[in-house]
Inverse folding.
């Protein structure tokens, strides 16, 4: 017997307005559902922040220290990261498909460290990104570099392709050796990425006026870690970046080249998501012990 459609029953809540929640991320309210849903996997809806682990270095540098065996060194860390940034080769070969982490797929490449790095092209077809169920694709832009326009075109092509599939694009602002790393440069680079359609931007923290880089960029900014430094220096940089409006970190070497990568990730999570200071996080880092990984540990996780 069909249900009786009885309008007198209060389940219709006629007097309760339909819920219209604003999307939680900066500049992202007008995107389609799929794109918002992917962004909401990368950034925690509870605080709009993310701790991403970047392990894509091999795409131009080969097996750097800490990434010699991603299966042993990195896979066990996955439960501690909000999102993982890597290449499709490493994803397909090494990351278990049971992993729950959203994937930010490196989608540009070409030259090795032996050549001009700015001479990159798109290295992934958007259909393959969709097939891999990734949550975003990442493309390097070299503002001021020899091949600036080419890398910008790679960004805009990926943005067009990403919009068809609801896949966000992360614009990564690379800095050439001869370029000044200051707020003026990063305001230019980040703003260009956002104006040309990137849904979020990865850049470097600068101690002077980083807040102006964030304020003038209409999409979320996450900060890269850069070369390995002392743990406190890295944690302090993250504390300051968060205070000045960053939406999180996408850190590589300062995690996987740390003597205690798990503890370093915990410390980062506490700063980014729990509002800890760098001093608190460093105290935690110092006082925590961490056993070294064995192949059995990695297989068991
Ligand atoms: C550079 C990248 C890398 O993923 C990222 O910058 C490396 O992270 P870190 O600097 O923290 O080692 O996008 O091409």
């Amino acid at each position: 017997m069909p249900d009786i459609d009885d309008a007198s029953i209060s389940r219709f809540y006629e007097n309760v307005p339909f819920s219209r929640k604003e999307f939680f991320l900066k500049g992202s309210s007008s995107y389609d559902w799929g794109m918002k849903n992917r962004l909401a996997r990368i950034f925690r809806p509870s605080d709009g922040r993310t701790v991403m682990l970047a392990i894509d270095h091999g795409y131009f540098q080969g097996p750097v220290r800490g990434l010699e065996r991603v299966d042993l060194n990195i896979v066990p860390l996955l439960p501690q990261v909000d999102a993982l940034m890597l290449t499709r080769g490493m994803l397909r070969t090494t990351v278990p498909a049971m992993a729950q982490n959203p994937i930010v797929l490196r989608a540009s490449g070409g030259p090795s460290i032996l050549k001009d790095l700015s001479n990159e092209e798109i290295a992934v077809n958007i259909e393959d990104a969709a097939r891999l169920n990734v949550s975003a694709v990442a493309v390097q832009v070299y503002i001021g570099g020899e091949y600036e326009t080419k890398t910008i075109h790679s960004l805009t092509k990926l943005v067009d392709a990403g919009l068809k599939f609801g896949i966000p694009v992360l614009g990564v602002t690379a800095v050439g050796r001869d370029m000044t790393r200051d707020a003026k440069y990063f305001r230019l680079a980040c703003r260009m990425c956002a104006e040309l359609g990137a849904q979020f931007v990865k850049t470097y923290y600068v101690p002077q006026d980083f807040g102006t880089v964030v304020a003038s960029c209409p999409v979320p900014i996450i900060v890269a870690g850069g070369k390995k430094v002392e743990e406190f220096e890295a944690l302090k940089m993250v504390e300051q970046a968060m205070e000045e409006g960053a939406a999180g970190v996408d850190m590589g070497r300062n995690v996987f080249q740390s003597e205690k990568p798990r503890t370093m990730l915990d410390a980062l999570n506490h700063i980014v998501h729990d509002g800890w200071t760098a001093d608190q996080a460093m105290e935690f880092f110092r006082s925590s012990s961490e056993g070294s990984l064995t192949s059995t540990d990695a297989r068991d996780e």
Q: What stands out?
A: The pocket of ribulose-5-phosphate is lined by residues 54, 56-57, 85, 140, 172, 224-226, 251-254 (CB under 6 Å). The chain has one domain: 24-300. The first strand starts at residue 50 and ends at 54. The CA atoms of residues 216 and 291 lie 43 Å apart.
